[in-house]
Structures are given as structure tokens and as C-alpha cells.
Amino acid sequence: MMQRKRTWIGLAMLGLLVLGAGAGRAEDGEGVPVTLKGPAFSDPDQLADKPEAWRQLPIRHKPPDEGAELAILLDQNNYPALLPLIREYAAVNRIDISLREGTCGPAMEGINRKQVDIGASCCPVAQADRLPGLRWHTIGIAPLAILANGEDPVEGLTTDEVRRIFRGKVTRWSQIPSVAGKFPEDAPVFPVIRFHCKTRPGHWRLILDNEELFGPRAEQVGSMLDMVTNVAKRRGALGYEENWHTINQPEFRERLRTLRIDGHSPLDREAVRTGRYPFYFVYTLSTWTEPHTANPKADALVRFLIGQAGRIDPAYHVIPAAELRGAGWKFRDDELIGEP
User: Fold this and answer.
1) Residue 233: what pLDDT?
2) What's the domain count of the chain?
3) Would you say residue 9 has pLDDT above 50?
4) Domain membership of residue 18 as a residue range
5) Is pLDDT at 230 greater than 70 in this prediction?
6) Does 251 share its domain with 159?
């Protein structure tokens, strides 16, 4: 027990020091302060350490990207949202672009191996992602949805209630005052969790900073499809998901409910833009800056995507970087680095 206590004390102290942490505090069973919300962003001034031999490597496209003028590897959020704009740009400018879909992990692997001109992540940049000679750009943010089963009589929760459910402090819907009379008295809550990109700030870590803070009763799944499927098929389930491409699939549209948090819907653009809706993820792209790695065509495409972010399909609920600047979010050059 003492070991667990020391660990949680360390987490609390670390949370106070990391950029973007500090909100959502509580106490553990022994009165030890715990920072529940994880960091929203990493420190842009702290670069990952790389040997000189790595720094001197050029960009070398590997199959199936060989011969392309641009090699791009996007995660599962950026890919469907940006695909129409990239295709349009390629056609108008007659550029041969090799565009592939992956996840944040393979995208970062392609960047680390210097095999792609543009990589992407649906999470804010981790400290380990801040490679020498690499620049990060923010397209925008989109809400991370708190999901309930479509047949359940719950339309909204508070941030504290969401955290208490996922921590295992609330185990029955009768413990939530706003819905206590709408569920059977013994109706259990079934939290569903997915721990992707654990080392990156933001996304699900805005709910609870790390997996140790989630309760032992929560059911852990491995994919976006598993998350929405489990919530859609089980009464009483509560989950979270950022991939609107999956949430919007016809087979899930009527079987899932996106909840208001603190009275604000994830579909309310103004609430997301101003930070009143508390959970979100970030559309992020990378380009290279050194003379032996930079690709001017990559820079031009990213500028186009940032400028045209307002044309992304509204079904993805993206708030472009330009609108975030107007709402007081903090930027370093093209990269979002702080909340308003």
C-alpha cells in the first residue's frame, strides 16, 4: 500500500509541473492529492535526443512510396478527414503523392526512420516526437465524445461524474443525481476504456492522466471499432472515442448517444472552440526543416491544409486552427501548445 501511495504522490507532483496539467484534482483513499487530468500538451522547447548520424540522414522513401514526390502517412483520424483536400491539391498541382493510412504509432515510426515527408498524429505531440529538424503543425481540434448506449436515458454528465465513473468511484447509475430516477435502482455502469498513445498528452488523458487512475471494473478494448461496438451493444455502458469516422457509421448512429458534459454538447462548435467542452483531440501534421530533409512541396501542402481546414467535412467536427487562435488558444508558430 505504501508503494502505491508513493506512486500516486509522484504522479500528483509531476502533474503540477507538466504543461497543461493542474485541473481535475481529487484525493485518494488516504487523503493524498491526485491530479486527475493529464497534460494537454508537451513542452515545445524540449527536443528528443538523437545522434548526429541520424540527424544527417536524408529522407528516403520506401515501397510503396518510391518514386513519389511526396510520401505521407496519416493516422486513422487525419486520413479520412484530410483525404478529399489532399486529393484535390494533388490533382490541381499535378503532384504525385503517395498517401497511406495507419495509426499514430506507425506514422511516428515512418517519421523516425525518415521515410515520409509528412506524418500525422491525432494526439498532441509527445516529448519523444519532438525530433531535431522536425516541425509540427496543427490543423485543428475536434471533440472527444463521451459515449453512452443509445437506449439509455442519460443525456449529460458533469466532468467530475465522468471521472468518478471511470475511476470506479461510481458503479451504479442511481449514484448520478440527474439520472437516478430514470434507471432501475440497481442498474450498473459499465465503463469501457481504450489506452492508445499512452505516452502522448491530451486525448483520453484529459479525462484521467494514466491507466492507474482508471478503476479495475472497466473493460479495456483495443480498437476504435471495439469501443463503439461495446458501448452500442450494452445497456449501461459508458465509453469515449475521438474517431468520428467510426462514430458516424450508419450501424452505430442510432445505437450510440454522445453526452453533454457540464451542459455542453460535443457537437456545439462554440463550446469546443472556447474550451467549455473539456475533452478534445488534435489534428497534427509534421514536416522537415533541414536543407537535406525539407521538401518545399510538403510545406506548401501543409499550408494549404491549414488554410482550407474550414472545408473539412462537418461530420468530423473540426475546429480549424484559425478559429482557435481567435478564441485564445496558445500557439508556437503553426503548432497548438496551450489551452485558452
Assistant:
1) 96
2) 3
3) no
4) 1-35
5) yes
6) yes
